Amino acid sequence: MLRSGELAELTGVTTDLLRHYERIGILPPAARASNGYRLYTPQAVMRVRAVREDEASFPALLGRRGH
């Protein structure tokens, strides 16, 4: 399992963007460690990367403009 900071670093996004993806359903709700940290599966890396690739091709996909 990956903490949100680790997932963010591996995918080149911010932890805020990961939480946004979770809120809008792109990422499934993260498990929580006993200290409250979000824990993501390794599959989340592939999902975030795929979304970022799609978003680069279609900036309006998630209501974002070239971020």
Summarize the structure.
This protein is mainly alpha-helical and 67 residues long.
Key words describing this protein structure:
single chain; 67 residues; mainly alpha; Multidrug-efflux Transporter Regulator, Chain: A, Domain 2; 3-stranded antiparallel beta sheet; 3 strands; 48% helix; 10% strand
Question: Which geometry do the CA atoms define?
Answer: elongated
Name the poorly predicted regions: none
Known CATH architecture: Orthogonal Bundle
Number of strands: 3
Specify the biggest β-sheet.
Answer: 3 strands, antiparallel
- List the strand order in the largest sheet: 1-3-2
How is this structure best described in words?
There is one protein chain. By secondary structure, this protein is mainly alpha-helical. The protein has a single domain, classed as Orthogonal Bundle (Multidrug-efflux Transporter Regulator, Chain: A, Domain 2). Helix content is 48%, strand content 10%. The protein is built from three helices and three strands; from the N terminus they run βααββα. Strands 1-3-2 form a three-stranded antiparallel β-sheet. A hairpin with a 5-residue loop joins strand 2 (31-32) and strand 3. The chain is elongated. The termini are far apart. 12% of the residues are buried. The mean pLDDT is 88.
Topology:
Elements: E1 2-3, H1 4-11, H2 15-23, E2 31-32, E3 38-40, H3 43-57
Antiparallel strand pairs: 1-3, 2-3
